[in-house]
Amino acid sequence: MSKGRILVVEDEPVVALDIQARLSRLGFELAGHAATGADALRLADENRPDLVLMDVRLDGPLDGIDTTRELLRRRRLPVIYLTAASDEDTLARAKETGPLGYLAKPFEDHELRAALEMALVKFEAETRLKQSERLLSTTLGSLGEAVVSTDKNGQVTYLNASAVELLGLSVGHAIGHSWRALFAIVDKDDGAQVEDLEELCVAHGGAPRCEDMLLRLPTGREAPVALSVSPLYAPGGDGLQGRVLVLRSIAQRKLAEAELRASMAALRSTFRQTVRALASMAEKRDPYTAGHQQRVARLACAIGRGLGLSEDALEGLEMAGTLHDVGKVYVPAEILSKPTRLTHLEMAIMRGHPEVGFDILREVTFPWPVARAVLEHHERLDGSGYPGGLHGAEICLEARILAVADVVEAMSSHRPYRPAQGLAKALDEIRSGRGGLYDPDIVDQCLAIMANGYAFDEPAPDRCVPAPSPPDQSEENA
């Protein structure tokens, strides 16, 4: 198997024949012999050799160095010069062409073999390296992220096209300058300009990456970016050689997030309007108890806030309070507005409203246990409630809060079958039922709220429900 195809460029026939014989003995294949520069260029184009042995001194208008320069202009080929003693000017010209070796005439077979094999291996390695560099350069250039490389002192050594666009800099202006003079990274958490990017990113998540930073340019322009910082160490990990900074604009993401928040706000508003419409549908059947569900929801939220519930949980509690009597659409209007005590049959119908409300709401995908709270808001800790006769912690927290708020509001308000009994009597009711009928912590919180001046007709500052719907609404009668 041939070790490589060699083009011999030598104008002395005897020397040329000797070199060709040596190449054959050493296992190399002859790609041609040329005595002039013009012939060498022609044979190189026709035969595509792997390497050229080039005599420095050739007859004709092109000597070996001129021929090599033209050869390299046309295509990359490794060249070894064959030379006798040469003057300094000739050697200087030869060095400019970057040959892969020199062989001084006369030379031995082992010298020729070593020079050829080393040149071919070195040329193959350089070719792979250049291909890798081109691939890396093309890849980095096509990335949408801005890539900035620095040396160990923070001086910029490279930036890709995206970095040029993001930073508004030319490559010539950026290379050799400190990145700190070209742009600044600001920590959005405290507004401070960052000096040590690696420490910042590690502090933001255990990895050299920060998702929400601010890029600030000397022009005053700012842009939200995600940032990653990767240190470059010398082989063996001895000494920092530089860093690679990758900046990704997140302006579009921020815009999309803002649009999503606006869309969610609109959807939430529509959702709340739908909930109020459902509540209004039930309450319009009973004009004597207008606004009961909203007042219960507001008091329940005040209690929940005092108990330390999250804003999300409070919103779910508000929904449950606003809808807790929606099942009364099933109850005939004459029962809802009856001015005398209900019969056993009428009471049974009335007591069915939690289950009807549950049936109405269970198909709605609430992110909170709204349907369950509606179902259980008439349960009591001692099991005397309805519809399931649940005990203690079997009743969900939202339902336990609604139970207290519902009793206080109902007893404080006018009903068709009785006048308002007053807030004091309502508070006595939950106080006497504390721990038996009602959750003691919830009762204590409700009493504390009322002691601080809470009033149904004046929304507290920490209310978590919207303004009440128009009157003409209904309430519980059981």
UniProtKB/TrEMBL annotation:
Record-annotated Response regulatory domain positions: 5-120
> In what residue span(s) does the HD-GYP domain sit?
267-462
A Gene Ontology annotation in the biological process aspect, one of them, is: phosphorelay signal transduction system
Acetylation: is it a keyword of this entry?
no
Where's the PAS domain? 132-205
Tell me if Phosphoprotein is a UniProt keyword of this record.
Answer: yes
What is the official name of this protein in its record? PAS domain S-box-containing protein/HDIG domain-containing protein
- Domain named HD is located at 289-411
Q: Which residues carry this modification: 4-aspartylphosphate?
A: 55
Instruction: Note the SMART domains from the entry.
Output: HDc (SM00471), PAS (SM00091), REC (SM00448)
- Keyword list, A-Z: Phosphoprotein
| Annotated PANTHER family | CYCLIC DI-GMP PHOSPHODIESTERASE TM_0186-RELATED (PTHR45228), LIPOPROTEIN (PTHR45228:SF4)
